[in-house]
Specification:
This protein is globular. The longest helix is centred in the N-terminal third of the chain and has 32 residues. The chain folds into two domains: 60 residues, Orthogonal Bundle (Helix Hairpins), CATH 1.10.287.990; 121 residues, minor pseudopilin epsh fold (3-Layer(bab) Sandwich). It is mainly alpha-helical and 214 residues long. 49% of the residues lie in helices and 11% in strands. Strands 2-1-3 form a three-stranded antiparallel sheet. It contains seven helices and three strands. The chain starts with 21 loop residues before the first helix and ends in an 8-residue tail after the last helix. Helix 1 runs antiparallel to helix 2 and helix 4 runs antiparallel to helix 6. Bound molecules: manganese (II) ion (MN). The site of manganese (II) ion has 7 residues, from helix 1. Manganese (II) ion binds next to helix 1.
Length: 214
């Protein structure tokens, strides 16, 4: 039985227009995300077979595939919920008046101001080399928020940090609509951020036990 399953989108394919076209959302969710789910499940099966046969010739590749597909599944699952139609309150910035004051305060404390945070995440996402993500993450040892520039789905991240807002900067996320203008796509992404969702993820992440003692 499959361990991981493709989650349904929380909106229809056209919900994020004009920032992201329905064609991109459909392909991105139904084909790309689905492939990571299948890849994670297939790799776990292959690892079970390796254990059964005590055959470890492919272990390096299998462990790499597990990290790639599982991280792809997790980041995309967060990505869909991080966005909402501008008509339904997506975009803007987190404000205490909207019930997301704790998140707004944490961003100001960790980055100096919302504007500086926005500049850093925009730059981190827009300057990915090859395929990657810009990520706002809660770092449980310091209790601060950090921005990470993720390679593929799994590289260049600190152990234990919890992603709460993710910008997919892979070409499949924008190329059909924005062609080679990755910066334009990342800048437009701010119009569909669902701050309520980011705020819930921040609150949840804070409940996690710090990873190191002492
Ligand atoms: Mn993607």
């Amino acid at each position: 039985m499959a361990i991981y399953t493709l989650p349904e989108l929380p909106y229809d394919y056209a919900a994020l227009e004009p920032v992201i076209s329905p064609e991109i959302i459909e392909l991105h969710h139904d084909k790309h995300h689905a492939a990571y789910v299948k890849g994670a499940n297939d790799t776990l099966e292959q690892l079970a077979e390796a254990r059964e046969k005590d055959a470890w010739g492919a272990v390096n590749g299998l462990e790499k595939n597990l990290a790639f597909h599982l991280s792809g599944h997790i980041l995309h699952s967060i990505y869909w919920h991080n966005m909402d139609s501008p008509k339904d309150g997506g975009g803007g910035e987190p404000l205490a008046a909207d019930g997301v004051g704790d998140l707004a305060d944490a961003i100001a404390e960790s980055f100096g101001s919302f504007a500086r945070f926005k500049a850093q995440l925009t730059k981190a996402a827009a300057t990915t080399q090859g395929s990657g993500w810009g990520v706002l993450a809660y770092e449980p040892v310091s209790g601060r928020l950090i921005v990470e520039q993720v390679y593929d789905h799994q590289g260049n991240v600190g152990q234990g940090s919890v992603p709460i807002l993710v910008f997919d900067a892979w070409e499949h996320a924008f190329y059909l609509q924005y062609k080679n203008q990755k910066v334009d796509f990342i800048e437009a992404m701010w119009q569909v951020v669902n701050w309520q969702d980011v705020s819930r993820r921040y609150a949840d992440a804070q409940g996690r036990t710090p990873l190191i003692g002492g």
